[in-house]
Design a protein that fits this description.
heterotrimer, A alpha/beta (about 190), B mainly alpha (about 100), C mainly beta (about 90), B: about 100 residues, mainly alpha, 5 helices, about 55% helix, about 0% strand, globular, C: about 90 residues, mainly beta, SH3 type barrels, 5-stranded antiparallel sheet, 1 helix, about 5% helix
């Protein structure tokens, strides 16, 4: 069995797709539709949640209590997906998310996991030298801010609610959402005004 | 020392040999192969043919040399194929024939 | 159900050495003592789901550790929080 599994992956995909569709397990239309839906998930979804939480205390409370409900409130599809947990950054605590076992990622609100999140270097270093790891992004935490690493190992998916940056007073939700990046919601970077 | 523990190779938290590796922080767009493998995995889950835990178990069963050499989604299609064969969704002979037909 | 604030130890167990398995408890935390932060919910045991076996529903907790003693060089996080299933937890010594 191991021999055939060593077939180059592109060929394996073609053969497996052919067999799964020939046997009626799935159709090529379903595959195309799934790709289209998955492409629709993106960090812009999570950014909308963060921006709303920055401007609406009730929404923020809901988001921290039940991330799934908060996502659904913004029409982000969550049905059948793992529950979403939200980790709040404060002046006292900075959160960083990793999955040391594979690549558990809050895909519903951030899209496909980025290359770095899946890498051995990220997975190894996040729990053992996270400040050194943040240096890869040029991120330096203020003295006295506790660094809390969340190893996402099981059935939840975690996103970070970063601190609203100074200099954004009076901004609209759309303006705020535009400055929130993928890395800000995993904790490798922090949002900046402009 | 944690490095002396009998960990599985995918269990990478704090593993010394990766501690000096730089992180490639550049964006890497997924290609068509990646997206299709991802979509097939989702459909197998939705149709209750294969759970994500079965996918992971199949990935974890890849020998370490191959695991580190293969890309993320190359591991996935290998695990999916392994699982489909084990479940009898198709046989090795059928897979071999399908691969032959690609030539 | 384990109450928040309870001290717990992660079992020092290595199913990996006994045959095929699928374990969601990272190696580096086994045998270590931490504190239960909260009960996250109850989920079918992934150790069985991975083999398509009937899976009992098990409680999942967020457990907080001080990881500084885990590694020698002293640059570990200030706090480490991990999802751990109840059958991997025992009373702290």
């Amino acid at each position: 069995m191991s021999g055939i599994l060593e077939t180059p992956a592109e060929r394996l995909l073609e053969a497996v797709r052919g067999l799964l569709t020939a046997k009626g397990i799935m159709t090529t239309d379903e595959i195309a539709e799934r790709i289209r839906i998955t492409d629709g998930g993106s960090p812009a979804q999570g950014a909308r949640m963060v921006a709303k939480a920055w401007t609406d205390p009730d929404y923020k409370a809901l988001m921290l209590r039940d991330g799934t409900a908060a996502a659904e409130m913004l029409a982000i599809p969550m049905r059948g997906l793992p529950p979403l947990g939200v980790l709040e950054d404060t002046e006292a605590v900075h959160n960083l998310v990793v999955c040391t076992l594979c690549s558990c990622y809050p895909r519903a609100v951030l899209g496909y996991p980025p290359f770095w999140f899946k890498s051995a270097a990220y997975r190894a270093r996040a729990v053992r030298d996270p400040r050194g790891l943040l240096g890869e992004w040029g991120t330096v935490l203020p003295d006295g801010q506790k660094l809390r690493v969340v190893d996402s190992t099981a059935d939840y998916r975690w996103m970070v609610l970063p601190q609203r940056p100074a200099g954004t007073e009076g901004w609209s939700e759309a303006q705020l959402a535009a400055i929130v990046r993928e890395g800000d919601m995993i904790g490798v970077t922090v949002p900046k005004a402009g | 020392m944690k490095d002396e523990l009998p960990r599985a190779m995918h269990d990478m938290g704090g593993v010394t040999k990766f501690m000096c590796d730089p992180v490639d922080t550049e964006p890497h767009a997924l290609n068509d192969f990646d997206k299709e493998v991802d979509a097939i995995r989702q459909l197998l889950g939705m149709k209750k043919v294969m759970s994500v835990d079965e996918l992971r178990r199949g990935i974890e069963a890849i020998p370490e040399g191959d695991y580190l050499r293969l890309t993320y989604y190359q591991r996935w299609i290998r695990s999916i194929t392994d699982n489909m064969l084990a479940k009898g969704m198709f046989t090795q002979d059928e897979l071999r024939a399908a691969l032959e037909q690609l030539r | 159900m384990i109450a928040p604030g309870t001290q717990v130890r992660v079992k020092l167990n290595w199913p990996e050495t006994r045959g095929p398995c699928h374990i969601r408890t990272p190696h580096y935390v086994r045998g270590e003592t931490g504190v239960v932060e909260r009960h996250l919910g109850d989920f079918p045991n992934p150790e069985d789901l991975a083999f398509a076996r009937p899976a009992a529903v098990v409680s999942l907790y967020h457990v907080r550790f001080d990881p500084k003693p885990f590694w020698p060089e002293g640059v570990a996080p200030d706090e480490l929080v991990i999802e751990i299933f109840e059958h991997w937890l025992e009373a702290a010594p």
